[in-house]
């Protein structure tokens, strides 16, 4: 009977993201963007975007934030 040894694959040997020749638009950033990333920046340099929440802000909240 043969014995099987369970091993984890070596780091970096799995499938990689498909990249294009585009790089991040930020100065001094050499990150290559995925072909599926339609943005001009990498994850670290992308502008912060907040989701739109349903409903309205109460006047108390707006007064506190002002």
Topology:
Layout: E1 19-23, E2 32-34, H1 59-65
Give a brief description.
By secondary structure, this protein is α+β, with helices and mostly antiparallel strands.
General description of the model:
With 66 residues, the protein is of the alpha+beta class. It contains 1 helix and 2 strands; from the N terminus they run ββα. It has a two-stranded antiparallel sheet with strand order 1-2. The longest helix is centred in the last third of the chain and has 7 residues, at 59-65. The model has no long low-confidence stretch (mean pLDDT 78).
Search tags:
alpha+beta, 66 residues, single chain, elongated
Q: Strand arrangement, largest sheet? A: 1-2
Order of helices and strands: EEH
Distance between the amino and carboxyl termini: 74 Å
Helical proportion, percent range:
10-25%
Mean pLDDT: 78
The coarse overall form would be: elongated
Q: How much of the sequence is in beta strands?
A: 5-15%
- Summarize the main sheet: 2 strands, antiparallel
Structural class: alpha+beta
Gyration radius from CA atoms, angstroms: 22 Å
Count of distinct strands: 2
Ranges with pLDDT <50 over ≥5 residues?
none
